[in-house]
Amino acid sequence: MRLRDLVGLMVVIGSVQGGRSLPSSRSSSMCNDRFGELDLVSFGHRSCSMCYYYLFPRMGKPLVPQQPHAERLIFTNKSLTVDPSPIVPDPNNLEAAERVCATLTSDECQRWKDCCVAAENCCIEQLQREVPSGERCQQVWDGFSCFDYAKPGSAMTTPCPTYLQYSMTGEGVKVCTANATWQLKKGKQWTDYTACLDKNAYLIGVYITVAVSSLSIALLVPAIIIFCSFKDLLKQHRVRLHIHFFASLTLSFVASILWYMLVHYEKLVNQNSTESVMYRNPGWCQLLSFAKIYLTATNYFWMFCEGYYLHRLISNAFEPPSSLFLLYVLGWGAPAIAVLVYSFMRIGMANTSCWAISFGHYEWIIYAPNLLCLFASVGFLCNILRILIFQLHSHPNEPSNFRRALKAAFMLIPLFGLQMFLTIYRPPVGVPGHREYEYVFYVNSSSQGIFVALIFCFFNGEVATQLKLRCPCFSKDRRNGNPVTTITMVENGRSPSLSSRSRTSCSQQSPKQANRLLVNGGANPNEVLLQEAKKKTSPGSSQGSSPISNKQGYSRIPPDMPSRIEA
């Protein structure tokens, strides 16, 4: 009978004997692997033998587990010049470890030892656990990872072991079936490590992330420069918030590119796993991980700040915030609190693998604040839509304005980060569509900078106006007089109105005239929304006079809106 057939037979027997939870009278000195129960010493020998067998399959290695108990490794070729006697594998036994490692490279030797140590630790954990009541799948060492008792019909996950050659930050999945036995595949107890071993899928993910993040940076940096180059833009509060948000996105994308290239990509292309950055866990790698986590958190808090500020203006258009200091503190300072707490706990409890492996429930220390910011943004957008719907009923004679305002509200989705909800649910590893989900996730999480830069800078009519005033060449391609809709500011005591005009070049109008026009073809969604909100908050308005004009006929614009409608 061939070795593989023997192993398959043992797996089936072990699945029957070790798959179900044993009564609470089970001996507390026995450890369980996929083949059954053994004492600590025998368990260590067998698990070390199987670590060798599983880590280096079909690689021409000269050692195989000796049957029937697989507690020893034997040479397949007895004519070798080395000692052909069986080896009792034990990483703590120098002689035995040297004989095993003589058949491996230094990298493979270290990975084999790490697997043996992980198996021994699993056995110790099993001995310390109390047997739960009720029918459960048995705690087990599956050859790579340790699994606790599981309820029938549940799935257990574990971080990818670091001693796998291309192990990354995914998870292995083991399913406990409805009859309280671990799932079998081809008659063998099975754990799905697909997410840990699919090197090409990880490489594609790295390429997508780096490419899309680079495009975001290429658009965000010029947008920040444009905002900072025009005083009329820079003195506006909402533009200052945009600058901080864009800066946060830019820094986070830079950190993400460095992380994926210096840690993930290096791990995938490094032939010696024990020489990879993730395995060596240097201090700079931990610092890079800290920066990536912190800057990602600042993105969520700045999305909250953007949503809060716009909501405040729309709900109370004539009392805008007088200072942005508290928002600056919230955007940059609040994330640091949660990330520092997480980092101190990580250093003390799981300071390995550049913090790339999941920290379990402690990950909620940083996830919870980020999710709260997202849900708050949902609330802001819902209330903004409520205000607009109210306007739809209050001004039935101006349907086109409100269609435009509703479109502007939906254009706020990337500013508030609500596109993150598209990938908030991660399908289990191994189910159809999981790999496609991962690709969509990479694009979705890296493309936010592209959309906010285009919508709130490059396609923004106010920015276009400033560019035309500074450089008339920007309007040369539009001097044919294409009709566009513009928002004209208050003049001679009249309220803001919508009119259809023919766009003229900068040379045909004075700077003052040009400054009074906001091209709606590229209008900022915030500006459109605030105009509609002012209709709601203006007391006793009439069509013939402006509810916000004073006795001299000039409009009373809030401090944050010096020359045109803003938000």
Structure, described:
The protein is mainly α. The protein folds into two domains: 3-149, no CATH class; 199-458, Rhodopsin 7-helix transmembrane proteins (Rhopdopsin 7-helix transmembrane proteins, Up-down Bundle). Helix content is 52%, strand content 8%. The strands form six sheets. Strands 12-11-13 form a three-stranded antiparallel beta sheet. A two-stranded antiparallel sheet has the order 1-2. A two-stranded antiparallel ribbon has the order 3-4. Strand 5 and strand 6 (146-147) form a beta hairpin. The longest helix is centred in the middle third of the chain and has 33 residues, at 237-269. The radius of gyration is 32 Å and the shape is elongated. The termini are far apart. 38% of the residues are buried. Residues 482-512, 531-567 are annotated as: Disordered. One of its GO terms (molecular function) is G protein-coupled peptide receptor activity. Keywords: Cell membrane, G-protein coupled receptor, Glycoprotein, Membrane, Receptor, Transducer, Transmembrane, Transmembrane helix. It is a multi-pass membrane protein. Belongs to the G-protein coupled receptor 2 family.
